[in-house]
């Protein structure tokens, strides 16, 4: 369906209404501030700590298995030493006796090496247990912080989400009523100026948020509402103070319903 042809004044009023709606959405999002990002960062940190904890616990199990393996090796070496000692009683010559003696000495070295490794593993276990304890403390602290921040965010969302969605819908409705050329210009200006203010009223002889004075003749043209005029310094669309005040009162009544 074709858009209804609007007068310049109607366009200016619609654009200023749209600005008031979008500025209200900006305010709501500013109240949330960095909270959503903080919550996301905390969630990532908690997930990372959980993964680290899992890996640490898993590495403990690996070390435990290594200790069991070394203990089994010690028992095997002891068993072999006992067997070789028995065999020495039945040797036929010194060469066989010396050969078995070397085997017994080798098994003794295997036991010493295995004992050394077990001590090293136990030391690693103590170190890892300390790191696990520290990680658990850090995880608990981060989880509590995350819970607090989520609660804070949920409370803000509960207060503002319904209004924000209603305003977003209303913003889209207003854009549908304004010609695409003006909406495109409005969106472009909003992205390029401070605070997202694309449509501003004249305040004390200057455009809102600017220190550059607007010549009296231009101010008269703006007040006549015969054409869309932009600030040559900021590119913002300008409206007169009376129109702005009228639209603020109108939109304040709309906002009070949300």
Structural description of this entry:
With 258 residues, the protein is mostly helical. It has 2 domains: 8-31 and 179-255, no CATH class; 35-160, Orthogonal Bundle (Helix Hairpins). 78% of the residues lie in helices and 5% in strands. It has 6 helices and 4 strands; from the N terminus they run H-H-H-H-E-E-H-E-E-H. It has helices at 8-32, 35-88, 94-177, 180-192, 216-224, 241-255, and strands at 199-203, 206-207, 229-230, 237-239. It has a 4-stranded mixed β-sheet. Helix 1 packs antiparallel against helix 3. The longest helix has 84 residues, at 94-177. It is rod-shaped and about 125 Å long. It starts with 7 loop residues before the first helix and ends with a helix. The mean pLDDT is 93.
């Amino acid at each position: 369906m074709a858009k209804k042809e609007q007068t310049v004044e109607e366009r200016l009023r619609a654009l200023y209404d749209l600005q008031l709606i979008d500025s209200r959405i900006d305010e709501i999002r500013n109240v949330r501030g960095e909270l959503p990002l903080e919550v996301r960062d905390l969630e990532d940190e908690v997930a990372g700590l959980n993964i680290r904890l899992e890996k640490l616990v898993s590495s403990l199990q690996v070390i435990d298995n290594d200790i069991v393996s070394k203990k089994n090796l010690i028992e095997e070496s002891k068993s072999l030493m006992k067997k070789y000692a028995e065999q020495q009683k039945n040797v036929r010559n010194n060469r066989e006796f010396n050969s078995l003696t070397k085997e017994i000495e080798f098994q003794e070295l295997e036991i010493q090496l295995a004992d050394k490794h077990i001590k090293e593993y136990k030391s690693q276990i103590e170190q890892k247990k300390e790191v696990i304890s520290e990680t658990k403390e850090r995880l608990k602290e981060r989880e509590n912080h995350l819970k607090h921040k989520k609660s804070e965010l949920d409370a803000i969302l509960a207060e503002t989400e319904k209004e924000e969605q209603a305003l977003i819908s209303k913003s889209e409705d207003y854009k549908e009523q304004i010609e695409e050329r003006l909406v495109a210009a409005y969106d472009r200006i909003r992205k390029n100026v401070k605070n997202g203010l694309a449509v501003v009223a004249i305040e004390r002889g200057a455009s809102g948020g600017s220190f550059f004075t607007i010549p009296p003749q231009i101010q008269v043209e703006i007040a006549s509402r015969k054409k869309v005029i932009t600030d040559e310094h900021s590119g913002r669309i300008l409206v007169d103070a009376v129109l702005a005040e009228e639209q603020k009162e109108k939109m304040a009544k709309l906002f009070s319903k949300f």
